[in-house]
Every structure is written in structure tokens, then in C-alpha cells.
Specification:
- This is F-box domain-containing protein.
- The structure is a single chain.
- The chain is an alpha/beta fold and 275 residues long.
- It has one domain (72-271): pyruvate-formate lyase- activating enzyme (Alpha-Beta Horseshoe), CATH 3.80.30.
- It has helices spanning 8-19, 29-40, 45-59, 64-71, 80-95, 123-128, 156-160, 178-188, 210-218, 238-244, and strands spanning 74-77, 108-111, 134-137, 168-174, 196-202, 230-234, 256-260, 269-271.
- It has an 8-stranded mixed beta sheet, sandwiched between helices.
């Protein structure tokens, strides 16, 4: 672009606003609701954001770097083959003459297990995604009773915890599915650097036996959630969820709590020490 009328710095700020991801700390649940639209790139505001960012990337060389940062901020996996394709893209970018490190742009992963197990916690991504901050698990869409669905191995949470820069987790899960709840809290309690957690409890109410509750609670370690500062939770079965979890499932360092209640409707956010 020759002699731009708008300074490049200002243009970059405007491009950053296109993605519209600067939600308040208590609004993280909106990302869970919008994930499906984000993936499909439909005609809603999320789809328009992607189209706009692509247009910005093609406008001029001065806009390309910032548009690329925003385009690759969030990567969505909804098929095992997606992981293979993305790893290949990273390798091609690393070997190109520009030496652009594509992996360093990724801040969020959305892992859609609905179509089956997604091997996102694998060697190349564990090494390359050095700037990854957030993993989103829209598990409510998983049909765990499907013949083709298998939960990750009991040690999968150990791999997830090897993303050293990971500080935020977002879960949308069916509280009535015991295996789903176990998987979610294996991950939550394994990530040592976890600072922000968003939980949406939906589906069916839990009907766990004492023989199921005790092993679930035993998964929590003394250091689990020791760095957790921000917690947001919602769902019609929120109280029931707390009844089956450990008395202090989110540690004692929480400073900000947002509880979304279905009845009565409440958007009030509460600051406080501990949980």
C-alpha cells in the first residue's frame, strides 16, 4: 500500500477488533455457544469475521501479518484428519523461505470430539504450539453411546498437561455422562498452570453411585487448581455437579467467580477470595 492515509498501527488495531474475541472475563461461555458457527463459517457474525479477516489478508502486504495473527488465533479440529493437515501446514511453513512460524500464532484450540477421538495432544503439536493458552472442549455434542465413539485413554490428560503454556480450559459437557465428567476433570486437575476455567453443565442430571463418586474425587491432587484465579460456571445442574465433586474442586486461590443461574435468571458476577 503506497502512502496509506491510515497509519499501519491503527489499521492493525482495527483488524484485531474484527475477530471480536475480547469478551469480558465472565463472558467466556459465549465462545462455547459460538463454536459451531465458527467452525462452519455460516452467515452469522462469526462467519463474517472470518471472511473479513481473509479479505484483510489479501488487501495488501502491510495488512497480511496482523490478519494472519487473527486468522490463526483459534484452530478448530472436528475430524482426526484435521490434525494431520494442520501438522503438515506447520511443517511447510517451517520449511518455506519466509521462515514464518505458523504454530506460534495459535492461541486457542477447539477440539470437536463429536466425530470421534481427535489426536490433538501429539508430539508435533506439543512441541510446536508454544503460545497455546486455551483448549475448548464442546463435549455436549458427543454421542458417547455411539458405536464409533471411544473416550481417550485414561492417561490422555497427561498428554494435554504437556502443553506447557496452557492456562485456560473451557468445557461444555453432559453431566449425566459419568465417563465424560471423569475425562473432563482428569484434564482440569492435571493442568498445573490452569488459571481460567469455564464449565457449562448441561445434558442430564448426574445419577452417580457412591462407588462412582469416590473414584472421581480421588482424581484430584493436592496441587490441582492451585493457580486457578478465574472460574465461570453455568447450567441447570450446577448445584448437583458441586454435590458430586470434591468439597474444594477448584482449589482455594480463586479470586473471580461468575455463576450463571437459569432460574432466577442472573448475570451478576461475584469477586471473592477462595471458592
Amino acid at each position: 500500500m503506497d502512502s496509506p492515509r491510515v497509519p499501519t498501527e491503527l489499521s492493525e488495531l482495527i483488524i484485531d477488533r474484527v475477530r471480536d474475541s475480547a469478551l469480558p472475563w465472565w463472558g467466556r461461555l459465549k465462545f462455547v455457544f459460538g463454536t459451531q458457527s465458527y467452525r462452519l463459517g455460516t452467515a452469522d457474525h462469526v462467519g463474517r469475521d472470518l471472511h473479513t479477516l481473509r479479505a484483510c489478508a489479501l488487501t495488501c502486504s502491510a495488512w497480511l501479518p496482523r490478519a494472519r495473527v487473527n486468522l490463526y488465533h483459534t484452530v478448530v479440529f472436528d475430524d482426526p484428519h484435521d490434525v494431520e493437515l494442520f501438522v503438515r501446514a506447520i511443517q511447510v511453513a517451517d520449511s518455506s523461505s519466509t521462515r514464518h512460524c505458523l504454530a506460534d500464532l495459535v492461541r486457542e484450540l477447539v477440539v470437536e470430539f463429536a466425530g470421534g477421538y481427535i489426536p490433538f495432544a501429539q508430539g508435533t503439536l506439543l512441541r510446536k504450539l508454544r503460545s497455546l493458552r486455551t483448549v475448548v472442549f464442546p463435549l455436549l455434542r458427543v454421542d458417547s453411546h455411539s458405536a464409533g465413539w471411544h473416550y481417550p485413554s485414561p492417561r490422555h490428560h497427561v498428554l494435554v498437561a504437556q502443553f506447557n503454556s496452557l492456562t485456560e480450559l473451557v468445557f461444555d459437557l453432559n453431566l449425566g455422562d459419568y465417563r465424560m465428567v471423569v475425562y473432563a476433570f482428569r484434564v482440569v486437575w492435571a493442568v498445573r498452570g490452569l488459571e481460567r476455567l469455564t464449565l457449562m453443565f448441561s445434558g442430564h442430571p448426574p445419577a452417580f453411585t457412591n462407588a462412582q463418586v469416590q473414584p472421581l474425587r480421588a482424581l484430584q491432587r493436592p496441587w490441582s487448581c492451585s493457580k486457578l484465579k478465574t472460574l465461570a460456571a453455568t447450567g441447570p445442574f450446577l448445584q448437583k455437579a458441586m454435590d458430586v465433586l470434591h468439597p474444594r474442586p477448584f482449589g482455594t486461590a480463586v479470586e473471580r467467580v461468575a455463576i450463571y443461574l437459569d432460574s432466577p435468571i442472573s448475570r451478576q458476577c461475584v469477586d471473592g477470595r477462595g471458592y
